[in-house]
Write a structure and sequence with these properties.
single chain, alpha+beta, Glutaredoxin, Glutathione S-transferase Yfyf (Class Pi), Chain A, domain 2, four-stranded mixed β-sheet, 9 helices, 54% helix
């Protein structure tokens, strides 16, 4: 049975923009596993496969359903040990957990402030209402004000990518000579704005751009 991956979409169901779903799509490609994606908007997540899910991705493999991108990566390594590892051992797991925390705390706040209005604009009317209400409440401002301020947020966001640029001086990937799940975590976060907006958030740093282009194939 083909692996099924529930993937967040916009009004146009081919528009997929969840950073967490992009992590898992790269992970499945890395392991060369066949899978199908199933588009789901924000307001339909709770009904996936009869589960009371609150977020995607959700990966369904036979009778197993797993949410949370890190748990999915660990499951894929356990269930398909003959394929390339995503998290090869305790040290790689610890590194990936750090990268996950850094991405969530240092990158995501800037990204959402740059593209929240763009995400809203690619949703249908029902999901626009849900997204506006929930995001304006959590961000304590309007989507329009965030949009007006996004050049300022981009400056701070790009500064936070300095650590990635410095690391890439010495190795081609976060995982070393080849990418691992830590790379896919950061890639997913940077693919997020590219998938929902025409606003370019990446710094013009050749090492970062080359790293991103390699993963974006």
């Amino acid at each position: 049975m083909t692996i099924r991956l529930y993937d967040l979409c916009g009004r146009d169901t081919s528009r997929r923009f969840s950073p967490y779903c992009w992590r898992i799509k790269k992970a499945l490609d890395h392991k060369k596993l066949a899978y199908e994606t199933i588009a789901v908007p924000f307001t339909a997540i709770a009904g996936i496969e009869g589960n009371d899910a609150k977020t995607v991705p959700m990966l369904c493999d036979g009778d197993r359903s797993i949410t949370d991108s890190f748990a999915i990566a660990e499951y894929l390594d356990e269930a398909y040990p003959q394929t390339p590892k995503l998290i090869d051992g305790a040290q790689a797991r610890a590194m990936s957990r750090f990268v996950e925390a850094w991405t969530y705390s240092a990158l995501h706040p800037g990204i959402v402030r740059m593209v929240a209005k763009d995400i809203h604009d690619i949703l249908d009317a029902e999901n626009q209402a849900y997204f506006r209400k929930s995001r304006e409440k959590s961000l304590k401002t309007t989507l329009e004000q965030l949009h007006a301020d996004r050049d300022r947020h981009r400056q701070g966001f790009q500064t936070n990518l300095l650590a990635l640029d410095l690391m890439l001086r010495r190795q081609p990937f976060i995982g070393g000579a080849t990418p691992n799940f830590a790379d896919f975590i950061v890639y997913g976060s940077l693919k997020w704005p590219a998938a929902c907006s025409d606003y370019d958030v990446l710094p013009q740093k050749p090492r970062i751009l080359d790293w991103y282009a390699h993963l974006d194939t």
